[in-house]
Amino acid sequence: MTPTAWISLTTDYGLGDGFVAACHGVIARLAPAVRVIDVTHLVAPADVRRGAAVLAQTVPFLPYGVHVGVVDPGVGTARRGVALVTPGGLLVGPDNGLLLPAAAALGGVTEAVELANPDWLAPQVSPTFHGRDVFAPVAARLALGATAVEAGPAVDPTTLVRLPEPVLRREADGFAAEVLTVDHFGNVQLAAGAGLLDALPGEPRVAGRPAVRGRTFGDAPHGALVLYVDSAGLVAVAVNRGRAVDLLGVTPGDLVRVTGTGG
Amino acid sequence: MTPTAWISLTTDYGLGDGFVAACHGVIARLAPAVRVIDVTHLVAPADVRRGAAVLAQTVPFLPYGVHVGVVDPGVGTARRGVALVTPGGLLVGPDNGLLLPAAAALGGVTEAVELANPDWLAPQVSPTFHGRDVFAPVAARLALGATAVEAGPAVDPTTLVRLPEPVLRREADGFAAEVLTVDHFGNVQLAAGAGLLDALPGEPRVAGRPAVRGRTFGDAPHGALVLYVDSAGLVAVAVNRGRAVDLLGVTPGDLVRVTGTGG
Amino acid sequence: MTPTAWISLTTDYGLGDGFVAACHGVIARLAPAVRVIDVTHLVAPADVRRGAAVLAQTVPFLPYGVHVGVVDPGVGTARRGVALVTPGGLLVGPDNGLLLPAAAALGGVTEAVELANPDWLAPQVSPTFHGRDVFAPVAARLALGATAVEAGPAVDPTTLVRLPEPVLRREADGFAAEVLTVDHFGNVQLAAGAGLLDALPGEPRVAGRPAVRGRTFGDAPHGALVLYVDSAGLVAVAVNRGRAVDLLGVTPGDLVRVTGTGG
User: Fold this and answer.
1) Which of A9, B66, C179, C184 could form a disulfide with B14 if both were Cys (CB 3.0 to 4.6 A apart)?
2) Backbone φ/ψ region at C32: left (φ over 0), alpha (ψ -120 to 50), beta
3) Number of neighbours of residue B156 by Cβ within 10 angstroms
4) Strand, helix or coil at A120?
5) Which DSSP string corresponds to B132-164?
6) Rounded to an integer, what is the distance from CA B181 to the centroid of its chain?
7) What distance in Å separates residue B122's CA from the closest CA in chain C?
8) Which chain B residues contact residue C231 at CB under 8 A?
9) What angle do CA A18, A19, A25 make, to 5 degrees?
10) Which residues of A touch C26 (CB under 8 A)?
11) Which residues of C touch A219 (CB under 8 A)?
């Protein structure tokens, strides 16, 4: 085992049941020295896109380790459970698109396996709780230093299920980008890299509303829209001391037009 | 001290105040090497039955250790604080029924004591915060290897306060069972063991509505009721990609009839 | 490094994004042996007073360590980031009043520095996420044993931003005190020390309503107001098996009159 081994957990289990603790418990029993970081358990139920975005934007800041993602409406069906190896860490979860953006953030998939070795799973696998009975014990064994190939047969990475790419469309006076996430503060993150903001001519507008180009929230007057590069390196919209999501009335997946005026 | 000692916490303290952290802090000061697993702190205030169910269904998956439960509307009154010894671990909390289902899941109470040794408690015990001043320091000392008998005088286990057994009634064409819990996904867990589902003749109905007998959610069409054995081994009702609790309009304590038709 | 070093985190980041985990991750990468206690991440966005109260009331029960507070609507603006040294531990966060009540609870500020050493921060500091890029790495270094003076230039403690003192007014028949916090149970904590309750003549009234003077909730009949000294040593108002905040219709900052009658 490495001196300090880490596992992270990202799920839609919520915090009101014992589901998260059962996963912690399974890890603690198999690998008591491993430390666990909870990324979030408040992904909306079955919202694979949201889980994928949060996981991908968080793993670059986590220690090297095994990152478990469980947003898994197909639990217990024919969908595969997989472990992905990347230069920056391992990922474990369902093969439904949840893990691939994080894998890309960690350097790309170099090896993938299907979780099929029964010795690595709970003696009885509940068809509705693979977090506890499949993904947690697999993660514990990987954190202890076992190799992915022991977990099951190799999977061709090109066969892994992928989420559709978020929409980003360059336009004459700016761009239209899909809302990728909305955070706790109501800040609206767009599927658009920082360069697009730099390239925007003149005074910006967001969905037709005037906005301030800023580095941080306080660069705009109270209540005004600010367009900035967020902490994940993406273009985002905030309202200083307010909630951009409420002002814009958008939801993840919606398209937002960002334009320059009079540039 | 054991090489790795564990404490778990299950409370109705919520996550918005510093109450949970104060318990963590007391444990960390007394027993810094002990690791803590939070089961949940979102039991509805004073809902002893809910806390008991979550704790009992989670402890089998936690490492051997001291499990603290605090759902304690009678805090500071004459109700006793107790520590229970079982083959599978120790339990600490109020004597109000909260701990006994978990004790049963861990093999049954072999010894019980009342928490009366003032040397084990905070120097000044707040009458409204026994989690911090009584249960956390007691758990820390037990996790460090002290024996329960040092915590206070023996209690006859038959005098421990018990919650009423949930209702389960076999009927000619099936059974009626109390709703034990509703989870984050809206799945409705009944106080009925898996065998009752196996014994059900023909096509099942739940509260008069047709349901699919399945192993997991995806065995039913989207929006349809599925009757399955959940990850705690109990009969449960889900809606594939939906919320059974909303469809059925039930709440814990309600009776749900499950019947076979044309069997 | 001390044998066990501790960091606590108190923020308004919420639990639904990866923000808290990113802070944990930064700490884990720099100081893997350090243990982290989450105080709360559910301070209402930008509610510095609430964050200050929760932090100050919790730190006395945490182990010696570095306490990070991030409720920081001015993130990325000219407001300073600071580290404060006290006899009971260190505090790290924005200079906006958040940390000073906790510093007082830990014995008072003996040294203060501005976080200006770029070697201590993330290579690229996001102007909107100082928790991850400034405060977490500084806390990790302090927990590893570095001295505050290495973090940046000394700050005159008298120049630190202070929140206004909460209102407390003695009156002929009692006192009027600001609501300091409302907890998860709806208990209303007043900015008034225990002595004021002892000095109250006769039967008490809270906002004109009759109340029972008690040690704990169960000292009042179900549904009745109870006036007690809470676990932080302050006068508080509860409703046995109910929510005082709903009965009184108050919010933090409101004044509540507590009077004795016929004393």
Assistant:
1) C184
2) alpha
3) 7
4) helix
5) IIIIHHHHHHHHTT--GGGGS-B--GGGS--PP
6) 10
7) 11
8) 126, 128-129, 132-133
9) 85
10) 61
11) 76-77
Residue of B nearest to A16 (CA): B42
| Residue-level pLDDT, tens digit, chain B, 263 residues | 445 699 999 999 999 999 999 999 999 999 999 999 999 999 999 999 999 999 999 999 999 999 999 999 999 998 999 999 999 999 999 999 999 999 999 999 999 999 999 999 999 999 999 999 999 999 999 999 999 999 999 999 999 999 999 999 999 899 999 999 999 999 999 999 999 998 888 899 999 999 999 999 999 999 999 999 999 999 999 999 999 999 999 999 999 999 997 64
Query: Bridge-partner residues for C228, per DSSP?
Result: C236
In A110-233 the beta strands, taken as DSSP E runs, fall at 111-114, 168-171, 174-182, 188-193, 203-206, 209-210, 212-213, 225-229
Q: Which of B4, B37, B218 sits opposite A24 (nearest CB)?
A: B37
Q: In this complex, which chains have at least 3 CB pairs below 8 Å with chain C?
A: A, B
Tell me how close the Cα of C34 comes to any Cα of chain A, in angstroms: 11
- Cα-flanking dihedrals φ and ψ of residue C87, to 5°? -60, -30
Question: In this prediction, does ipTM exceed 0.95?
Answer: yes
Whether residue B76 lies within 8 A of chain C, CB to CB, comes out as yes
d(CA A106, CA B200): 50
Q: Is C57 on the interface with B (CB under 8 A)?
A: yes
Which pairs from C199-202 meet CB under 8 Å and 24+ separation?
A: C200/C174, C200/C258, C200/C259, C200/C260, C200/C263, C201/C173, C201/C260, C201/C261, C201/C262, C201/C263, C202/C260, C202/C261, C202/C262, C202/C263
Q: Which residues of B touch C15 (CB under 8 A)?
A: 15
**What is the C-alpha to C-alpha distance for residues C23 and C32, in angstroms, rounded to an integer?**
13
C-alpha distance from residue A51 to each of A47, A58, A79, B78 (Å): 6, 11, 17, 47
For residue C46, what is the nearest residue in chain A, using CA coordinates?
A: A241
C contact residues 166-225, partner B, Cβ 8 Å cutoff:
181, 183-185, 215-219
Contacting partners of chain A (3+ CB pairs under 8 A): B, C
